[in-house]
């Protein structure tokens, strides 16, 4: 593995990756997924913001 230059071929890249210690290549648990979004609904406050904008 060369730390002086970037790999110039895919073979060099593969060789460099093979030299990475196994403990650094181990897969780690990913971050938890965010909760699913709630259903969207228009309430009176939302509707009041756009009253009269039909002209635009």
Quick synopsis:
The chain is mostly helical. It is 36% helix and 0% strand. It is elongated.
What radius of gyration results from the CA coordinates? 27 Å
Structural class: mainly alpha
The helix count comes to 3
Instruction: Give the SSE string.
Output: HHH
Low-confidence stretches: none
What do the pLDDT scores average to?
Answer: 82
Distance between the termini: 63 Å
What does it look like?
The chain is an all-alpha fold. The chain is 36% helix and 0% strand. It contains 3 helices and no strands. The protein has helices spanning 10-18, 22-25, 44-50. The chain is elongated, with a radius of gyration of 27 Å.
Write the layout of secondary structure elements.
Layout: H1 10-18, H2 22-25, H3 44-50
Keywords:
56 residues, mainly alpha
């Amino acid at each position: 593995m060369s730390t002086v230059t970037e790999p110039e071929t895919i073979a060099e890249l593969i060789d460099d990756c093979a030299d990475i210690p196994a403990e650094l290549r181990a897969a780690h648990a990913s971050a938890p997924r965010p909760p699913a979004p709630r259903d969207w609904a228009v309430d009176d406050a939302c509707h009041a913001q756009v009253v009269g904008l039909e002209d635009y």
